[in-house]
Amino acid sequence: MVDILILLPIISIMIGLYFITLGLWELREGVNRHQYIKYMFTGLFLLFILTPLVWMMVNVLL
Question: Where are the transmembrane segments (predicted)?
Fold first, then answer.
């Protein structure tokens, strides 16, 4: 159980970076600007908002 709690922020970071990469790829293609905005905001949310919240939750639970 403790291992999963420690892995959640790492998984959140990896998924956030994946969405940012997809957003940059979409921007490079230049086909759908709305898709770029969705990918970038999702990735940045996961990276800068959700990850610290999960770290704080893990610290409180442990």
Answer: 6-27, 39-58
